[in-house]
Amino acid sequence: MPANSSQNDLKACNHPEKSLWDHQLKVASTSQYLAQIAFDYWSGLVRYHTDFLNSFFKSVGYFSVAESKKAFSLQPWSALPAYAELLSINVELAQQTMSSSTDTVVDYHMSEINNAFASLMATFNGSGQGDIYEYIRSVAGVLNAVSVEFPKEIKNIAAEFGYDFNNGQYEKIAESDRFYLYQVLPNEPGIDIRNNGKPILIVHPYVLGADILAFLPGEKKSYVHCFANQGIPTYVRILKDINMNPAVQIITLEDDIRDTKRFCEIIVKKHNRTMTLNGYCQGGLITLCNILSGKLDGLVDTHITCVAPIDGSRSKGFGHFLRNLPDRFNDLAYGTKRLPNGNTVADGDLMAFVYRLKSIKDEYPLIAFYRSLAMSGHLQKKGARLSKTAAAINFWLSSQRHDLPMEITRLSFASYNTPISGDGTLPFPAFNRKLNMKYFDKKKIKWLICYGESDSLVEKECALAPLDYIKAEATPFPKGHVAIATSWSLPTSACALHTRFGKGYRGPVRFQLDMEQEKYQL
Question: Which of 16, 114, 462, 488 has its CA 20 to 30 A from that of 316?
Answer without folding.
Answer: 488
